[in-house]
Please model this.
Amino acid sequence: MGIGFLILLLGSCKITDNCARTEIARITKLTCPKEISLGQTAGIEIEFGIGNGCGSFKEIKSVQTGNYLQLEIINSFTGCTCTELYQMGRKVFPFTPTQKGTYYIQYLLKENSYLTDTLLVK
Model:
C-alpha cells in the first residue's frame, strides 16, 4: 500500500511549461564610456527591470549594423503563480569595436522607441 501511494503521489506531480515565456525587459539605465581606443573593450552597464518573482535574466541580444549597435535584455519567466516582487537586474555587455569612429549604442525604452548613446573610438 505504501508503494502504491508513493507512485500515485509521484504520478500526480506534473511539471508543465504552459506558464513559461520570455519578454523584452525595460532598460532603465545604460552607462557607456564616452571614448575608448581601438582594440579596447567598452563595458556597457545595463540596468533593467525583471518584473515579478518568476522572472530572471536570460540574455542580452545585440544587433550591429555598421556603427549602430542595438541592445535588448531578454527575461524569462517560469511559473503560473508569482510573487508581485518587482526586481531589478544589472549586466555588463562587453563591446569591442572593430574600427575607429563614432558608434551609436541604442537601447529600447518602450515599444518602437530607442534611446541613443554615443561611443567615440580613437
Notes: The longest helix spans residues 2-12.
